Amino acid sequence: MLEPDGDTPTKCCFQAKSYIRELAPDEDLTDLRLEEIKLDSRSEQWLVTLGYFRKRSFAIYQSESQATGMGAILKQSGEKLIENRVYKQIALDSETGEFKSMSIREFSHVWNVEAGNSR
Fold it and tell me: What is the pTM assigned to this prediction?
């Protein structure tokens, strides 16, 4: 069993990063970082959340006429690169470290910096 000692979280993080690179070879994993790690005693799995930036290109359109809304005639005027942080949770068997699953990790927790608390 991968016992929760000082070295185990490091091993799990290394394995999870290795798995995500293997599963998404075409993905540009810019700034791949450990976000969370915990041992889930119910499922007997290490849950490792990794975050990275994903870049996507979007077309930008502008009106060729004064018309707006549905009557506007649009032409592509360029592209814009948008970068957002993506979070993936990798589940590893707690005994063997074997890959079990990868899922999208969404956060509903919002931190209000001005108020100094979460909501």
Answer: 0.66
